[in-house]
Amino acid sequence: MQLLVVGAGEMGRWFARHSGPTAVAFADREPETARAAATTIESARAVPLDTDEAFDVVCVAVPMSAVPGAIAEHAHRATEAVVDVSGEMRDSVAALRSHAEGRERASFHPLFSASNAPGNVPVVVDRGGQTIDRIRESLAGAGNDVFETTPSAHDRAMETVQAKAHTAVLAYALAADDVDPRFHTSLSGPLSELVDGVVGNTPEVYAEIQARFDGGTSVAEAAARIAEADRETFIKLYEEAGQ
């Protein structure tokens, strides 16, 4: 399988390593990034974004907001399948359907950073076939749990597991004071570790998630309800949270 990865960052490199290609080409708006990615995989190479070559599979691995445009620009270079690993499904699948007609197409979302792989990988298969099956088998063979979903189910889940979760963790980080670590409890200690895990990554990725998925406002509203609650109201909210 000859694979073109458009977007030579962390997740594009992850997909190239684990999707089972026999040959890999990287293209990126920053040519040096593509060249650097090519050095991480044996026999991989860098190609220009406007290459006129054809490949069995094109994988789009760019920020969520750029996915529809990237699919429109590069889908025609695939002879068998077009996929993305962007992190949202509604716009990605719509773009795949519009610009990869007659080809297999699927949207994968690794729910982890490449350094924390393997993990769970939801996928929407909009048009299946042998090539998509081989990719799924290869990702599963690398230890990932690849499971099918729908665009609406995926994006609804992301509102909670990403937008709401990130908002809650970052809000705690902004509100918390520095304390002697010996004061940490069984709750605050792990929460501080979550903060470290979030703020040590790329802020642009989190900004994309907050812009794409609703959820942050509802967390802020819930926090305000707790902060403003009297004793009886707090008890009711506490009990509601446990339901």
UniProtKB/TrEMBL annotation:
GO biological process: tyrosine biosynthetic process
Domain Pyrroline-5-carboxylate reductase catalytic N-terminal: 5-86
GO molecular function: NAD+ binding; prephenate dehydrogenase (NAD+) activity
Superkingdom in the source lineage: Archaea
Gene3D superfamilies, sorted: NAD(P)-binding Rossmann-like Domain
Cited Pfam families: F420_oxidored
Keywords linked to the UniProt accession: Oxidoreductase
Protein name: Prephenate dehydrogenase
Lineage of the organism: Archaea, Methanobacteriati, Methanobacteriota, Stenosarchaea group, Halobacteria
